[in-house]
Amino acid sequence: MAETIDTDILVIGAGSGGLSVAAGTAQLGRPTVLIEKDRMGGDCLNTGCVPSKALLAAARVAHAVRTAGRFGVAAGPPVVDPAAVQAHLRGVIAAIAPNDSVERFTGLGVRVLKAAARFTGPDTVETEAGQRLRARRIVVATGSRPALPPIPGIESVPVLTNETIFDRLPLGGHLLIVGGGPIGVEMAQAFCRLGTRVTVLERATLLPKDDPELVAVVRATLREEGVEIVEGAEILRLEPVPGGGVVAVLREAISGGERRIEGTDLLVAAGRLPTVQGLGLDAAGIAWTAKGISVDAHLRTTNRRVYAVGDVAGGPQFTHVAGYQAGLVVRNMLFRLAPARADYTALPRVTYTAPELAQVGLTEAEARERYGDGVRVSRWPLHENDRAQAERETAGLAKLVLDRRGRILGAGIVGAQAGELIQPWVLALSRRLSARAFTGIMAPYPTLGEVGKRAAGAFYSPALFSDRTRRLVRVLSWFG
């Protein structure tokens, strides 16, 4: 007979969001079952954040060797061993994997089932192994998968995505990348630095959701390092090359003619789709669209017993968002007297190229659309930062978007370690602080962090050193 399991909390999906929910509810004493059909840790650990950042780290070292001469250090061209690079990636994943393992979660009191699952009713789920589960609360955290754009011929050519590229590592040759978003540009720089010729094909502009002023710094760096970037790329079709490889046929923006670009490999980084197929959502009365499961501000679905977190919930697709949402759902399921609402006002986002591009809050364009002429912008360039000069990392700037009184509406930094430097501004925005909060603090010297303080000070400089202030100082001087 099929096993029937009754539990308090049932979590479907063992990615970042699902693991956080399961760990939280189990440690708070609630019987919890976690179902995962594939690998523990989900996309982030196995095919996303972790291997991509490990690859970027290897590429950064190769670039450091290649450019060591600027520091007066003699070094030859880097010799890249693809097998050793892949071993590095696997080693990083292996080091982190115990935190997401079945053994760890079993130790926390979670029952882990390795199987696909689907809803059979509002509070019931069945696994492919025949187990039947009934739960008081259910959390769907099934993540997302790579989206393949409807390009004619895409089904006739070999396609790499984030799920396969780290096992392939096409070092050498010519890598074509469809998509100039964060994944596309990170992989473009990584593979270029490791010795691959790279062409990025972006139908709009590079990093289209980011501040164009900050993106310009990333674009210039990528091109300087040898990445070919084709913006406004209308791909008419893809064609296989006999013996291997692919040809992308583009429409020329000016002439309207065709341009053919041949590559040895094709990476598609053109967005992601929520994983909802096969879940039986309709049987549970859960509304969903092509963008994901419909949730309210409390992350509850149209079935009041069921919540959704992470990419499948149709919101911002970041690991840290999934973790944030998981915390809200644990609170809302177990402490129902004061339900928490999701608030993405201070959502940070980082593209981990070199230089990194980090933002929080509104971009300048978004702020002007919302507040019009009341928006002010304050900047400070990295080449005016002494630590940046010492490190030879002077490309970039800090940019603050403020209202007339200096209240922070958004902040963006492009430069070395921007992902670290943005964090004080995340706190400032979440606490509704003004730029003045940064002008009086003591920043250690010399640090890259000074750039934020200088950007804040630059906002007040015109008033501080105005004629009016000069007259006040002159009057005060009369009193000794």
Structural overview:
This is Dihydrolipoyl dehydrogenase family protein. The chain is an alpha/beta fold and 480 residues long. It folds into 3 domains: 4-40 and 101-146 and 273-334, FAD/NAD(P)-binding domain (3-Layer(bba) Sandwich), CATH 3.50.50.60; 154-270, FAD/NAD(P)-binding domain (3-Layer(bba) Sandwich), CATH 3.50.50; 348-462, FAD/NAD-linked reductase, C-terminal dimerisation domain (Enolase-like, domain 1, 2-Layer Sandwich). 33% of the residues lie in helices and 25% in strands. Strand 19 (348-351) and strand 20 (356-361) form a beta hairpin. Helix 1 runs parallel beside helix 9 and helix 3 (49-66) packs across helix 4. The longest helix has 18 residues, at 49-66. The chain is globular. The chain starts with a strand and ends with a helix. The relative contact order is 0.11. The model has no long low-confidence stretch (mean pLDDT 95).
Features:
480 residues, alpha/beta, FAD/NAD(P)-binding domain, Enolase-like, domain 1, 3 domains, 7-stranded mixed sheet, 5-stranded antiparallel sheet, 33% helix, NADP, disulfide bond
Write down the Rg.
25 Å
In CATH, the homologous superfamily of the largest domain goes by the name: FAD/NAD(P)-binding domain
In DSSP terms (H or I, runs of 4 or more residues), the helix count works out at 16
How large is the share of residues in beta strands? Answer: 25-35%
CATH class designation of the largest domain: Alpha Beta
| Overall 3D shape | globular
Output the structural class: alpha/beta
The CATH level-2 architecture of the largest domain is identified as 3-Layer(bba) Sandwich
Number of domains: 3
* Cα separation of the termini: 96 Å
Oligomeric state as shown: single chain
β-strand number:
23
Major sheet characteristics = 7 strands, mixed
Helicity, as a percent range: 25-40%
